[in-house]
Every structure is written in C-alpha cells, then in structure tokens.
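Page 47, continued from p. 46.
Same chain as before, 269 aa.
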Amino acid sequence: MNLETITSHLVGIPFTSPWWGRILYEHILRERPRNCLELGFAHGVSTCYVAAALEAIGDDGVVTAVDRPEDVSHSPSLEDLLQRTGLAHRVRIVREPGGYNWFLKRTIERQSADGVCEPLYDFCFIDGPKNWTVDGLAFFLVDKLLREGATLLFDDYGWTYRDHEADTGYTGTDGIQHSSMTEEQIREPHVRAVFELLVMQHPHYGDFRVQDDRWAWARKSGSVKSRRVETTVTWDARVASRVRTAARELEHRLRAWRRARRWGRDRGR
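Result:
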C-alpha cells in the first residue's frame, strides 16, 4: 500500500501525524524488516503505517502490536483501522493484561532453550508509558529479542509529566499518579534518561539519532564504532515548539491574572 493511500485512511487520528507516519513508513521500506514489534499502540496509527510499508514490500513481514486490554476504549481502535485499511493480515494484536513487559517476559521464555534466548525481531518501536521503570526494563527485555542489525525506536524522547500536566490538566498518566512522584521525576524526561543512560551506554548499540526531541533511534550491532548522536530539528518542529511554549506562557499568565483577581475580590469584601 502506498504512502498516500494509507495516510488518507489515517489523517486526523491521534497520535501519529502524517509527518511522523511518513518517516516511519520510509524507514520500513528502506530497512525491509521481516518481523516488527510495537510496544504501546493506542489507536494504532503508527501500526498501520508499519503494516502498509510491509505490504508495499510484498514479503511475508508482520508487525506484532502489544498494549493493555483497557486501551480497546480508543475510538477508532486498531481493529477498526485494520478493517478500514485491509491490513489485518499484516498485524498480530496482543492485548496483554500484564502490560508489554509481561508479554516480553513470556516471549523470552518461548525463545529460550538451554539458557539462550534466540532473537526474533528486526525492528521495535517503544511507545508506552514514557516511564523510567517501565521502559528501562522494556529496553533490556527487548534487547534479548532483537537480531543484530535491528533498529530500536523510542517515541516521546523529551516528554515530561510536568509538561503533560500543564498541557492537559491530567494528574495521572497510564495509571501512574503524579502525586506519587518526586518533583525530579515529574520534571525529567524519562525516555531521554532511558536512551542516554541505558541504550547509549550499552556496548551493542550505535547509530544514535534524535529527531525533534521526540523520536530517538538506535541500531543493535556487535561492532559499534561510533557513539556520536546525530540530532535533527525540522522547521515544522521548531515552529510547533514555539507555539507550545507560547501557549504555556499564556496559560501561566491567565492563571496568575485569575489568582490576582480573586485576591482583589477577597480584599474588597
């Protein structure tokens, strides 16, 4: 399925825009992975871009998409999108009550014999809770299942609980209550910490690339020669960042004005 066709089916559905969908689609076309894994898929837009690229390649490539059962409440669901796009034969959906780390644990068990885990996947996209504990463990589990030369991709590289709370008003994310966290944990981008402290320091990973403070790429290789990070920022991303910053500043100003107004009314009583 070509890029224009799959995009026409998905435009306007969160959380992967056509811009990022194109990057993902073109990566799959270029790398030609046979067995892909996606950890956390929400509506499944990114899953469909991967599946469409696999369909365009024409081999027997598939993507296994893993998320929690409660995420079936997303409308449209991944099942809906696969029916709409006709790509169900390219996707294996796993709704795992224990979360994707439990799925990885069971997969490692199935792939293990005589104390050795046989790698299974050529590409993995981690797009879940954006949490140090969850995704830090996910990296080490996925590493056991990635073949040499496989690509690892993280979403939400610069995401923080503090920014999410300011943007949405939510004080809980993926079952994690912000009130149970320290100020440092709320302020710091957890995925960035996973990438810089775990992935980049791992002796079997290289070709590091960070895009627009959102996506972080790495390649598994037994012969890593360079640990340099390539950082790219697109014009669209710079504009979007400035808009978000301006919106937050305006919201802070409005809150301060409302507080001052309430204080003034209270003093006038």
